[in-house]
Design goal:
The chain contains 12 helices and 8 strands. By secondary structure, the protein is of the alpha/beta class. The strands form 2 sheets. Strands 2-1-3-4-8 form a 5-stranded mixed beta sheet. A 3-stranded antiparallel beta sheet has the order 5-6-7, with no helix packed on it. The radius of gyration is 21 Å and the shape is globular. The protein starts with a helix and ends with a helix.
């Protein structure tokens, strides 16, 4: 973290930026909240550690419109979201200075709790991949690879955009196949898949955390906030409404989702919402060729760029009918 602090102070000192978007400490040792630090107030409370999992790119939609020059700290996966937002003209890049920061994957405290650990007071990294967890009931250890966010366990991204990069020693860790869970769902019968999603989506409390955290879910006014839509701020009173909200949102980000995993990370009900988006990504890769949203800020997505080589509608229908 010291390298990052030194870099921010350098950017402040030479007037490259007047504020920085990063993370601050919260009530708990594992509670990290996006925050803006200014040259005048300094970096009191600033932190960057295993729990800074939030994607800061979406905050730039509003922050970059305020004028002045802002530095933003972006992990590898965050830079893809940044590019996608630039492509959609949602960020004023002239007001942003991107500092690429290293990431070894972020720790999910809920995964630690799922191992039966209670009363967590603090978590710190020791030698290798071991985490030391201090609790009200004593200390214990766990393997950080077992308690990473799902998005981190499959991530193979590298920084794709930056004004300056802070390097660290290469870190090789086991990575899972990001489409394995999707393929497991595809192997189910239609009835089994429907039952799976009904069980998952029935947990939804319509808190809108997934929508609010998603970088590419950034309409000026969401249809679900439109008083004339008939569904504004509507509770899930029946199965149709439970399905409708998430399916419409998944369609909305199809071809634009960078697979940053924020939707699942912030869900208080632990619904694997990323699987809906990842299914679309897998389908588009198979039908239109490999495509990674946000890999650059220019290339058009497969759903917005017609070519004569596009798959015929009959093939799409046949695939959808399986």
């Amino acid at each position: 973290m010291q390298k990052i602090v030194d870099k921010i102070n350098e950017l402040f000192a030479n007037d490259t930026v007047d504020r920085v978007l990063g993370w601050k400490t919260g009530e708990f040792s594992y509670d990290r909240t996006p925050a803006v630090f200014t040259k005048d107030t300094g970096l009191d409370g600033f932190v960057y550690d295993d729990f800074c999992g939030s994607n800061l790119s979406k905050y730039l939609i509003s922050e970059s419109a305020k004028g002045g020059k802002m530095a933003v700290l972006l992990k590898p996966c965050d830079t893809y979201s940044y590019n996608q937002l630039v492509k959609e003209h949602r960020i004023k890049t002239e007001n942003v200075y991107v500092v690429a920061i290293p990431c070894r994957g972020k720790v999910n405290v809920e995964a630690i709790k799922a191992q039966g650990v209670k009363g967590i007071l603090s978590v710190e990294e020791t030698a290798g991949d071991t985490l030391k967890v201090s609790t009200l009931y004593g200390d214990c250890e766990c393997d950080r690879n077992d308690v990473l966010y799902e998005k981190c366990s499959v991530c193979q991204k590298t920084h794709v955009v930056y004004d300056e990069i802070i390097e660290e020693e290469p870190y090789d860790r086991p990575r899972k196949d990001r489409f394995a869970e999707v393929e497991a769902l595809e192997a189910m019968t239609a009835e089994e898949r429907f039952a799976f999603w009904r069980e998952q989506l029935s947990k939804c409390i319509r808190c809108n955390a997934c929508r609010n955290a998603c970088p590419v879910c950034n309409c000026h006014k969401c249809i679900f906030d439109n008083a004339n839509s008939g569904v504004a701020a509507k509770a899930n009173t029946d199965e149709f409404e439970e399905n409708m909200f998430h399916i419409i949102r998944a369609f909305h980000v199809a071809g634009r989702c960078t697979d940053c995993g924020e939707c699942s990370r912030v869900c208080p009900q632990n619904i694997p919402l990323h699987l809906l988006n990842r299914k679309y990504i897998k389908e588009m890769n198979e039908l239109y060729g490999e495509y990674q949203a946000g890999a650059d800020a220019e290339t058009k997505g497969p759903l917005t760029n017609f070519t004569k080589d596009d798959v015929e509608p009959s093939i799409v229908y046949q695939k959808g009918g399986k």
